[in-house]
Amino acid sequence: MAEAGSDNRFETGTLTENVVSGNISKVLSHYLQSPERQGSYVMGYVDGKAQLDAFLEDFDRAGCTGFPLRSSTSRAKYESRPKPGASTGGRLPRYAGEERIVWSSNSGKVPIPDTDTPFIMSGTRHHHCMFISDRKNPLLNKRSGRATFGRSVCKAEIHVREIRVFLDYAATDYGPSPSSNQKAALRKRCVNRLTSDLRCGKASPPVLRYHIRVPLPEAHSDHPLGEAAGSVQKVHPALISKIGQLVQAGISDFRDVQQYLKACTEELLENAIVRPYPTDRRYHPLMKDIQNHVWRFKFKLKEDQARIIDLEEHDYLGSMDDFPMADPRDSVTLSSMSTQPLVGGGLHPSLGYDDEMEDISDEEPCSRSNVASSFLQQHTIQTGNPVAIDCVLGDGSTIPYMLTPVEMVSVGSETEISTAGVQRQLGTTPMLNNSFLDDDVEYWQKAAMAEIERLQALTSLCTNAARLKEVSERVNQMWLSLKKEVLPND
């Protein structure tokens, strides 16, 4: 019976290896150009960053393993060169030695063959199998006294070399039966022409090509592949991001989140060459995986809200030494003005209003009677800058008043920006006395810049980039018109 059990396990293992090998072969034949096998590795190339990312994604899925990035190098000199058609102003960049134009390369583990086309090296990437230990030195097993890594030490790895190929400068016009001297002369002319065009910004755009060396199943050791490896995979980053979006939208029921993730998985696999294994937690997360990520995002959401409250309650009007002194040409100098209805908002409850914020359209003034102070009228705006406005008091007099925007209130999937921030009472700081417009212009500029920094700290917490951009654009337009009204001579 024991022998029969061994035979069954052997047959199952062989079947799994065949499935994995078939999936990997399918991916390699679909993506790699000029594939070549060398031992337990296959080499080839793909053109374009999108093709490289798609290939690596499908390759990981085919073997149900992962290859995290371990190291990379980049040569960014080429990006600083003049663009085609650009004026160099008479100054030509030096031709760096590390950007040497070559026809082939035998260095490293990924040799690049000679195809009669010149290229420039751009960088390298080195990926290790996820089952390799993260430690360079083995840990000491305290119980046995022997050194152990605690994980398998798989040697499988992926190497990628990035090059920029100049197809329009290929040396192919050799003619019939050319001699070695004729080939060398033609290649020299091609290199000289390419070098001159690069220095002047006239070179045609190169093709981004990636030469890749990937392992076959037999290159792995001390760990399973295929279905057996699915239980140790981490949830796909796109699914984790989707969970965060759902939690922000108020959807935190685990079953509901699971249904949304299934739809998201189908979108990810729309153009996949191979489907993931049913046990692959990267695309089929377990319920406990979903629960852990939901709880983590809910905790982060509460933490962000607590930070917003802390920022709002903090006194940003410290000593004068704390205020940055900006260039007067860039700073905003405000003066007293007639209040105009701008953008609707809400009023802070500390001024006597209840907690409920009423919606006010852009066309009508944002005003309510104040039952707890002497203010007869208040106007608040959604803005990216502090604003001094005229406030009408109960006796009919008008004095300047400082409005400090803003706080962010998370409502469902939207991050609303409102003016429920701290609105400071008159007379609480020297900045808000009646004479600051005439006597304390420099002090006012410093205080205004401090308030702008406070706003930037608050808005950096906004997670809805589209909403923040929309509000910022409206604010900028409003602020420009406001400056023209306040400072007509600027």
Description:
This protein has three domains: 158 residues, no CATH class; 75 residues; 173 residues, no CATH class. It is 34% helix and 15% strand. It is built from nine helices and twelve strands. A hairpin with a 5-residue loop joins strand 9 and strand 10. The longest helix is centred in the first third of the chain and has 30 residues.
Question: What string, H for helix and E for strand, traces the elements in order?
Answer: HEEHEEEEEHEHHHEEEEHHH
**Tally of DSSP helical segments:** 9
Report mean pLDDT, rounded to a whole number.
65
Query: Residue ranges: pLDDT <50 for 5 or more in a row?
Result: 1-13, 88-92, 311-395, 397-441, 457-464
- Please give the radius of gyration in angstroms: 33 Å
Binned strand content: 5-15%
Shape: elongated
First-last Cα distance: 95 Å
Helix content: 25-40%
| Biggest beta sheet summary | 6 strands, antiparallel
Question: What is the count of β-strands?
Answer: 12
Number of domains: 3
From the helix content, strand content and strand pairing, which structural class follows? alpha+beta
Strand order of the largest sheet: 1-2-8-7-4-3
